[in-house]
Specification:
There is one protein chain. With about 375 residues, the chain is α+β, with helices and mostly antiparallel strands. Helix content is about 20%, strand content about 20%. Strands 1, 2, 3, 4, 5, 6, 7, 8 and 9 form a 9-stranded antiparallel beta sheet that branches. The relative contact order is 0.20. The structure holds protoporphyrin IX containing FE. The site of protoporphyrin IX containing FE has 27 residues, from β5, α7, β8 and α8. Protoporphyrin IX containing FE (HEM) binds next to β5, α7, β8 and α8.
């Protein structure tokens, strides 16, 4: 398959049909020097353009440089194709202002209003050491080695300017972002991404995905806001729950993925239908009802999450779950109200816990060789 184009109006890795693998990394900026940070963003951009085209991170490559110097590519992707690699950058609120409110790089007056910190949601069990961060890079590819190679080389290039704060591997995309893709399943065994914002929904993407200059932050025009949540699943408890209960929790059947009361995956849910017992066929607290745009002021999300299993927790349970990724034009109108209604009532909450959170302003795409990540901001 041809590499995914790196240059464009929007960053790749958002509406790009979701690849199978994820390596997501959040970075802390450890320099106070604005010029050094911008220079690193330039170098990152050049390396990202090369790696997404299936080439080495640096010009000389893994084995083409001087024998006395460390290679300018780490080498583990030698011989591997681009594998659909996309690299998507985001800026966290702490890049603009530190915890003490200090303007770190002279950009504090450019914080978009939409980057307002997420509120605390009932049930949140967030761990600060795996939350937030100054920068993030989402690497998606169909080969995990290619995604890991990309993050590793960006971290290598950023040595002395940034350090990795946390990172997350993911597999088995839990969303489809194009109608050409079959819907994959999450670790609860359900199809995930059936009713998602997709590449083909051009009008909705314009209205609900891409930020505009008139939204307040002109430098974000053509960009999008990203919410990441690491959501742990207690799969052992889930696996002892009856099939009927599992289906009632989501409001969809497990095999086909159809809304309860309908036959096919893409049939429209009927939230007014009642069963013989007089109860709603799709329960009042079913996930697909609570998350549906009709009950959230028309809010849509472009979900792009991945499954994870990070070994076990020492208590006889898998450390498994969903690394939730959602893009949108304004989290205050989209993620926040949807998550509020889920956190309040979703029966799914018995089986999940949000343990990490991130909110990122992902700038518009890099338009060509003279352009770089963050140019519109700095
Ligand atoms: C729909 C699973 C967390 C927002 C769905 C569906 C499943 C699912 C199986 C139905 C298929 C589909 O339309 O994609 C999960 C699991 C979660 C989780 C296992 C946690 C581990 C969240 C969170 C949000 C969210 C945190 C946002 C705050 C949505 C939305 C829909 C949806 C917007 C589509 C609703 C519609 O328009 O019908 N989810 N979800 N989900 N979920 Fe989740």
């Amino acid at each position: 398959a041809a590499p995914v184009a790196f240059f464009g109006e929007h960053q790749a890795g958002i509406v790009t049909p979701a690849q199978d693998r994820l390596h997501f990394a959040a970075f802390d900026v450890i320099t106070k020097d604005r010029a050094k940070l911008v220079e690193m963003l330039r170098e990152w951009t050049a390396a990202a353009a090369r790696m997404t085209a299936g080439r080495d991170a640096g010009l000389l490559g893994a084995v083409g440089g001087q024998a006395e110097a460390p290679p300018d590519d780490t080498g583990e992707a030698l011989g591997l194709p681009a594998s659909g690699l996309t690299l998507t950058i985001g800026f966290g609120r702490s890049l603009f202002r530190d915890a003490a409110g200090l303007d770190r790089f002279g950009i504090a007056d450019r914080i978009p209003a939409a980057l307002e910190p997420l509120p605390h949601f009932p049930g949140d069990a967030l761990r600060p050491e795996i939350s937030d961060g100054d920068l993030c890079v989402q690497a998606c590819a169909n080969d995990p080695q290619v995604a890991v190679h990309a993050i590793r080389n960006l971290a290598r290039i950023g040595f002395g300017t940034v350090s990795i704060r946390y990172s997350q591997l993911g597999f088995g995309r839990t969303s489809s972002t194009s109608r050409d893709q079959a819907t994959a399943r999450n670790l609860m065994g359900f199809k995930d991404g059936t009713r998602n914002l997709k590449l083909e929904d051009t009008d909705l993407l314009r209205e609900q995905l891409w930020a505009r200059a008139e939204d307040g932050a002109a430098w974000m025009a053509g960009g999008s806001y990203l919410v990441t949540r690491r959501i742990r699943m207690t799969v052992e408890t889930w696996d002892r729950t009856s099939l009927a209960e599992q289906e009632a929790i989501f409001g969809r059947d497990k095999g086909e993925g159809a809304p309860l009361g309908q036959a096919k995956e893409f049939d429209e849910p009927d939230f007014n239908a009642r069963g013989d017992d007089g109860e709603p066929v799709i329960a009042k607290q079913a996930h697909i009802r609570l998350a549906h745009p009709d009950f959230n002021n028309g809010a849509h999300l472009l979900r792009r999450g991945y499954n994870f299993v990070d070994g076990s927790d020492g208590l006889g349970r898998l450390d498994a779950g969903l690394f939730f990724i959602a893009y949108q034009r304004d989290p205050r109108k989209q993620f926040v109200p949807v998550q509020r209604s889920l956190a309040r009532a979703d029966v799914l909450n018995e089986y999940i816990r949000h343990v990490s959170s991130g909110l990122w302003a992902c700038p518009p795409g890099v338009t060509g060789d003279g352009d770089h990540w963050g140019r519109t901001l700095f």
